[in-house]
Amino acid sequence: MGKYPQTIRFVLREVYRIGKTFVSRLSRDVLDRLASNQGVGVVKRTIVLTAIPVLLVLGTSIASSQTAPPAKIADTSKGKTLVDADGMTLYTFDRDSTPGKSVCNGKCASNWPPFAAAADAKTAGEWSIIARDDGSKQWAYKGKPLYKWMDDDKPGDVDGDGRNNVWHIATP
User: Fold this and answer.
1) 3-state SS string over the chain?
2) Model's pTM, two decimal places?
């Protein structure tokens, strides 16, 4: 997911901040016009013009509070599969029997790289973040840590499915 979600969040925060300041100034303008008794028509137009940025601010704050899932669903030769932003298949490991805990470390993690979560990533719905033994963060779906397979070369590859009878594609 890279730097783009951080950039989007920054832009949304800035739009929200600017919109909030703009609404505050327009609200003061409406009150000043009412106090000076400049007429209902002017006040109505000002209120309508104020409503537009208010709706923008509300929409922006709602959009910024929603977090996009860290993976998407793709069709592969094995059916619907969870994939990362690059379309690479994600897998689960049967030996991860404790929800929210990965037992794939060291050489295992070299062959099956964890699906890394950014430091500022937020959990949402069935998506959670687990702390790995090395201190890094990893995405989990329905409590199951997710991994990639080092020999999957291109999006849609599912070569890791069934490995050692303990690795399986992650399904939605």
Assistant:
1) CCCHHHHHHHHHHHHHHHHHHHHHHHHHHHHHHHHHCCCHHHHHHHHHHHHHHHHHHHHHHHHHHCCCCCCEEEEECCEEEEECCCCCECEEECCCCCCCCCCCCCHHHHHCCECECCCCCCCECCEEEEECCCCCEEEEECCEECECCCCCCCCCCCCCCCHHHCEEECCC
2) 0.63
